[in-house]
Amino acid sequence: MREVVGPEHLDFLAELRSYLDGLDPELVEATRAENIEDPMQPRENGRRFLKRLAADGWLGVSWPVEYGGRGLGWIEQWLFCEELYDRRLPNGLLTLNSIGPTIALMGNEKQKRELLPPILAAEREFAIGYSEPDAGSDLGSLRTRAVKDGDEYVVNGQKIWTTGASVATHLWLAARTGAQEDRHRGITLFIVPMDAPGITIQPILTQGGERTNAVFLDDVRVHEDWRIGEENEGWAVVVSVLNFERMFFHNEPRWELRQLRGWAEECGLLDGDTPEAHALQVAMGELAVDVEICRLFALRGARILAEGRVPQAEASANKIWWGELRQRICDTGLDLIGEAGTIAHGSEHAPAHGHLEHGLQSSPVWRFGGGANEIQLDIIATQSLGLPR
C-alpha cells in the first residue's frame, strides 16, 4: 500500500474528506439512507448528491481535462470511490467508473463530445444490456440481433438482469450483427436511449428485495453514429467495461464487517478474557485481514491502470475475492448472532440493523454479477498462469 499510495494521494484524500464533511448534512443523510437500502438504484436524493459533486468538480477525478475531468490518476479515482462507499454514498458506479472511461478510450468524437460532459454532470446514467435468458456468463451465445438498414440498425431481442434499466437514461447494449456461429466475433456494442420506441421494461425482484429488470427490444432503431467501435468487434468493448467494473468492487466487505463488529461491541462479546471472546476476536481478526487483502487487490488494479494498462486477470481475482468475502462475512455474522439474525432488514429488532441478513439474502448475485466466478477462474488460469484453455 505504501509503495503505491504516496503523499500526493494522501493529500488528495484529505481534501476529499474535508469536502465531504462540509456538505449539507441533511442531503448526505437522506442520500445515505437511500444508498444503504439499494445502492444499485440511484433515486432522487442520490441524483441530487451526485449533481452537487458534479457542480463542485468532484466527478471524473481520473478523466482527462479535455473531457471535463480533473486529470488526476487512477489511484485518486480508487480513493474517491472507496471513500464515498465507505460513507455509503453513491460514487457513480458503472456509468462514471466503467462506461465513461470506455467511451473515452474507444468511442468516436461525436460520442465523446455528446456523452462525456453529461456523464460528468450526473445527467446520464447507463444500464448494462448484456445477459439474456439463454446467454448469461457465455455472451458468445447471445441472440439479440441488430440488422443494418441504411444508416441505422434495427434491434430485436430480450435482455435480463438489467439492473438500473428503470432509472437509466441509456442502455449499453450488446447485440449480434454477425452469424450465430461467429460467437464473440459477431457482437457489436450500441448506445440506446431508454425512451427509444420499442423498448419495454419489466421488473424482477431478487431474493434480497433489490430490483433488476427484463428489457424487451422490438424493432428498436439505433443510428450507426451510436455504435461503439466497428461492427462485429464489440467483444473488446465488453471486456474493457467488465475489467473497469471488476476493479471497483472493493469496499462493501469493509462496511459489512463494520456492521458485524458494531453488533459484537454492543453486545459486549469482544470484551473479557473468555474462550468465547477469544474465538470471536480471532474470527473478526481473520475477516479484517481478508478485507485488507480485498482493498489491496483493488489498489493493484488501480496501479495497473495508472501505468496505462488494463487489468484483466487481476480484475478477475479482485471480483472473486470481493464477492466470496462479502458472503463469508454475512454468513459468519449470522452464525454468531444465532436465531435473531434471521429478523429481516427493516425491523427495529434486527441485529446489526438487519444489514447482515439482507447481505446474505443478496449474496448469490455476487457470485455471478459482473461475470460468474467460474469464468473468472478461467481468465486467471489462461491469462495470468498461462494454462491452456
Provide an overview of this structure.
With 389 residues, this protein is of the alpha+beta class. 47% of the residues lie in helices and 14% in strands. The protein has 12 helices and 8 strands. Strands 1-4-5-8 form a 4-stranded mixed beta sheet, with helices on one face. Strands 2-3-7-6 form a 4-stranded antiparallel beta sheet, with no helix packed on it. β6 and β7 (211-223) form a beta hairpin. α8 packs antiparallel against α9 (275-306), α10 (313-337) crosses α11 and α10 packs antiparallel against α12 (373-384). The longest helix has 32 residues, at 275-306. It is globular and about 75 Å long.
Summarize the structure.
The protein is α+β, with helices and mostly antiparallel strands and 389 residues long. Helices cover 47% and strands 14% of the residues.
Number of strands: 8
Rg, Cα atoms, Å: 21 Å
Order of helices and strands: HHHHHHEEEEEEEEHHHHHH
Parts with pLDDT < 50 across at least 5 consecutive residues: none
Distance between the termini: 33 Å
What is the count of helical runs? 12
- Strand order within the widest beta sheet: 1-4-5-8
User: Mean of the pLDDT scores?
Assistant: 88
> Which outline best applies?
globular
Strand content: 5-15%
Instruction: Give the proportion of residues in helices.
Output: 40-55%
How would a textbook summarize the main sheet? 4 strands, mixed
Label the structural class.
Answer: alpha+beta
Give keywords.
4-stranded mixed β-sheet, about 15% strand, 8 strands, alpha+beta, about 45% helix, about 400 residues, 12 helices
